[in-house]
Amino acid sequence: MNLAIWKRLLNTRYGPFMGLNIVLQGCLIGILAPLIPILIVEKIGLDKSGVMIFFLLNTLVGIAVTLGTGWLSDGTIARYKLVLVCGLVATLGFVGLSQATSPVQAWLSGIAIACMGVGFPQVFAVAKTGVVAGWEHEAQVMGITALRTLYSLGFIIGTALTSLLISADIRTVFVLIAVVAAVVMVTTTLLLYRIETHILREAVRINESDAAASSATTGYALPMWALIVPLLALTIMRGADSTRGVYLPLVMFQMFKDASIAPLMFGITATAELIVMGMMGYLSSKIGEKTTISIGALVGALYFAIMSFSQSLPFLYFAHVLYAVFVAALLGVAMAYIQGLMAHRAGLGGSLFMMVFNVGALIGILSPLLVTGYDQTIFVIPTILCLIGAGLLMFGDRTAQIQKRMQAASVMVDSQEVLIAK
After folding, report:
1. CA atoms of 63 and 237, how far apart (whole Å)
2. Residue range 353-363, pLDDT digits in tens
3. Nearest to 381 by CA among 236, 229, 230, 233
């Protein structure tokens, strides 16, 4: 990552505080990713269909909550209020999951936990509107990618903590997770309150002509139908990533009978992301976000092919270095890409990214049901998904052409207005 971008972020008023909050969010997810499947299977006793229902309910509710809060956050309800309420519900959900003894209790807790997804898009929305708002487009992409790298750093810390806690009583661990979720809720609420207050003060300070001039540089508002293809392509890629997130701990446990292997694999990828994320952000500034994401998807297909057929544990560990390229493209560059397409609605843009994240999770949850048990051939499916997503994005996405036509039409209208005035 370009050091100048890091210096620029750290020199902004709220950049360091935002960075710390993102690290904390990544830490929480790093703890949850490998532990939730183990808790609901080994302790609560959910079978494969029960696991599917748990993640299906969690995902559907997550889609509704993030889209709803994203729509409300752009001028209707303050972002910090939304995060406060949803964070409280998620915290209660973790407490409920720690005490669940039946499938119904687990499913209800999973529904409540879905609300934790509100904080992430709202933080990146204010990053777009209040931290990197005045930067050049290429610098904005690299800045958002840099912030996403901090999320990976938090994920590494979380997986390291998971390795230490794996031998403890998992129900007690989830009580501790509820405490961490409460801390995330409070810090995110305070951060958003301060930044939103600052943005409002600046909006009052500048005059209307300056505000109009600055908004003119944010780009052209694309019609929603134009976003269908890129969002579909990213959703399919996310489906591949979700398959790994849900089934990697279960497949590795079946193959090697060691619950510590999956957290280590997650940690290897997150560690590699610290380097790869910056490289992908820089690459996207040179060749464009769409091409960079497609390259990442092809590398993701290679990773899943290895996971499908290799039974060499060292080689499987190495494959997770390759996976960092796919993660950096899908979860780093893609965030900036969607925000760029929705430059006029930062909150909705962040929520659309989370919708991609959640709808794609449905694909990852449901598609492996075609395979019996938790055999590694499950990963053949995400191999195919990565290839389909890359092809669809490269050859089906026409948002750049639509933007050019809209820009040309706008220039033509302005020219006609000038001639009429003369």
Report:
1. 17
2. 778 877 887 77
3. 236
Q: Which helix (H) or strand (E) holds 3?
A: helix 3-10
Query: What is the secondary structure of 298-353 as a DSSP string?
Result: HHHHHHHHHHHH---HHHHHHHHHHHHHHHIIIIIIHHHHHHHHTTT-HHHHHHHH
Burial class (CB in 10 A: 0-12, 13-18, 19+), 169: exposed
Task: Please give the residue that has the higher pLDDT: either 101 or 421.
Answer: 101
Model confidence at 419: pLDDT above 90: no
Q: Give the separation between CA 80 and CA 233, rounded to whole angstroms.
A: 31
**Contact call for residues 84 and 185 (beta carbons, < 8 A):** yes
Q: Would you tell me how many other CB atoms lie within 10 Å of the CB of residue 126?
A: 25
* Helices (runs of H) and strands (runs of E) counted in the chain: 17, 0
The answer to whether 27 touches 159, Cβ cutoff 8 Å, is no
Helix (H, G, I), strand (E, B) or coil at 101: coil
Check if the beta carbon of residue 141 is closer than 8 Å to that of residue 340: yes
Which run of H or of E encompasses 209? helix 208-216
pLDDT for position 413: 45
| Helix ranges restricted to H, 76-165 | 79-99, 103-113, 119-126, 137-165
**Residue 394's Cα: distance from chain center in Å?**
21
Shortest CA distance to 149 belongs to which of 272, 40, 255? Answer: 272
The token pair at 300 is: 């993701």
Asked if residues 19 and 144 have their Cβ atoms less than 8 Å apart, the reply is no
CA-to-CA distance for 96 and 110, rounded, in angstroms? Answer: 9
pTM of the model: 0.73
Nearest partner of 130 among 15, 263, 265, judged by Cα: 15
Distance CA 54, CA 46 (A): 9
Rounded Cα gap, residues 304 and 198, in angstroms: 45
Helix (H, G, I), strand (E, B), or coil: what is residue 256?
helix
Q: What dihedral angle (degrees, nearest 10) is formed by the CA atoms of 265, 118, 275, 318?
A: 20
How far apart (Å, rounded) are the C-alpha atoms in residues 111 and 53? Answer: 11
Residues 244, 52: Cα–Cα separation, whole Å: 14
**CA of 371: how far to CAs of 257, 335, 381, in Å?**
20, 31, 9
The mean pLDDT of 163-176, rounded to a whole number, is 82
Q: Which residues have C-beta within 8 Å of that of residue 378, sequence separation ≥ 6?
A: 243, 247, 251, 308, 368, 371
Q: Are 63 and 351 in contact (CB under 8 A)?
A: no
Q: Which amino acid is at 317?
A: Y
- Reference 335, options 225, 242, 230; nearest CA is 230
